[in-house]
Specification:
By secondary structure, this protein is mainly α. The chain is built from 13 helices and no strands.
Length: 246
């Protein structure tokens, strides 16, 4: 019993370590967000069994897994998505009533699925894992991460292959997210791609045009330049094809 307690004490990050990690996260910019996310990983790796360390590690790995567009870098996405899943599972087990573990587990499963291919992920049970974690995150705190769970639901229904694909639900959730976070360029990109998939190029172009006029917030979305770049590519293609088809 004493050894167990001692191990838990050693595993728990100090207030100073958490403060340093959170400062790195809060001070991310388009130029340093990947570097800062990696620095968070380095600081918190010794505390991976503790809830506060685990969910922050899951978040950092999710961000790092997105260094390239969703259809590229698949081996890297699968590896980092898997790491994020592991840490998010620890967070869910240690604090099952906190939103963070469920939310980042859903994000991690999504990234891992892109890495191994969506058909393979579905065969391995990813759909059930995603639905369960997204439902939990939504019920606990739908506003978490700037209503990120609505973007997750929308992208989930958009990305599912036929016959599971549900364009109407994708548009519903992504429109809902966009209405609540009108400066989020990721949300605009997801909505535009869902509109393209629904054969609504005029609506998609209107979404893209609106997004490109938005003054993005680096504090809320430090990777906004990547999303603006990809939105520009959709516009150049007259919103007739999704990014992976260009």
């Amino acid at each position: 019993m004493f050894i167990l307690a001692l191990n838990l004490m050693v595993a728990a990050p100090s207030a100073a370590v958490l403060s340093e990690a959170d400062a790195l996260w809060a001070n991310r910019t388009p130029a340093n967000f990947s570097k800062n996310a990696q620095a968070v990983v380095t600081k918190l790796k010794p505390h991976a069994k503790d809830f506060e360390g685990a969910w922050r590690l899951a978040r950092a790995y999710c961000w790092l897994s997105e260094r390239k567009p969703y259809f590229k870098d698949t081996k890297y996405k699968a590896r980092l998505g898997g790491l994020a899943m592991k840490h998010a599972q620890t967070a869910m087990k240690t604090q099952p009533k906190r939103v963070e573990g469920h939310y980042y587990y859903a994000w991690a499963v999504g990234q891992w699925s892109l890495g191994v291919s969506i058909p393979t992920a579905l065969w391995k049970g990813a759909e059930g894992k995603l639905r369960k974690s997204m439902k939990s995150a939504e019920s606990m705190n739908s506003a978490y991460d700037y209503y990120g769970v609505y973007r997750m639901w929308g992208r989930f229904f958009h990305s599912l292959p036929w016959p599971k694909h549900d364009g109407a639900k994708a548009l519903k959730y992504l429109s809902k997210a966009n209405a609540r976070t009108p400066k989020n360029l990721r949300g605009y990109f997801y909505l535009a791609e869902a509109q393209i998939a629904a054969e609504q190029p005029q609506k998609a172009c209107a979404t893209v045009t609106k997004a490109l006029a938005v003054k993005a917030s680096s504090s809320q979305e430090p990777d906004w330049k990547n999303w603006r770049r990809d939105l520009g590519k959709l516009k150049a293609a007259q919103c007739k094809k999704t990014l992976d088809a260009l």
